[in-house]
Amino acid sequence: MRGHGFLIANYVRGNSVIHRTPLWLKFLLVAGCGTASFLIVDWLVSAAVLAVMCGLFLLTGAGAGRLWRAVWMVAPILIVIGLFQWWQLGGPTAARIVLNVLVCVVAASVLTATTPVQDLLDGVVSLARPFKRFGADPERFALTIAVMLRSIPFIAGAFSDVRDSARARGLERNPRALVLPVFITTVAYARQTGDALAARGLGEAGD
């Protein structure tokens, strides 16, 4: 399975101001962008916020190419959402919704491009620790996120590989030729992941 990018940028080693920013502040940045997506009502404000977030991303030294890939991966979905919202609510509202989604994607990319995965997971554990009194397991929560971060690119890659194979055989319009192989590959990957976790005594209730 060849590698595939997905939605947010991978960590890029560096010493920028964004790299040195405390993790909790970067978490707040992402959370703030998510909250702002519900509060901003003017697409011009959304565009301005997006420009600021893109500027922050470029300050990380990750490069415009990584930023473009992060946006490109969600472009088909955003086009569909934008057209539907334009039809239902008009152009300004559609633009605001699409721009707000892009703000969240770029903000998440700023976080992941400047934070090693292990540091990110450690931060998640720290954030979830206060909820232990309610029965939450911070380590298990972090493990779930780690598996998700690894699984999503694999599944996206599986779909891309199957699509290319189907196109080469002239079956790109056949849903069975696309869905069934991806389903089988995904189930096999999930079982392999579960077996690997069980072999290490992870992911089991009561451990």
TrEMBL record:
InterPro entries: ABC/ECF_trnsptr_transmembrane (IPR003339)
UniProt keyword annotation of Disulfide bond present: no
The keyword RNA-binding belongs to this UniProt entry's keyword annotation: no
Ranges that cross the membrane: 27-58, 70-87, 99-121, 141-159
Locations listed in the record: Membrane
Matching CDD domains: EcfT (cd16914)
Pfam families according to UniProt: CbiQ
Cellular component GO terms, alphabetical: plasma membrane
This protein's name: Energy-coupling factor transporter transmembrane protein EcfT
Organism of derivation: Arthrobacter cavernae
Keyword annotations of the record: Membrane, Transmembrane, Transmembrane helix
Topology within the bilayer: Multi-pass membrane protein
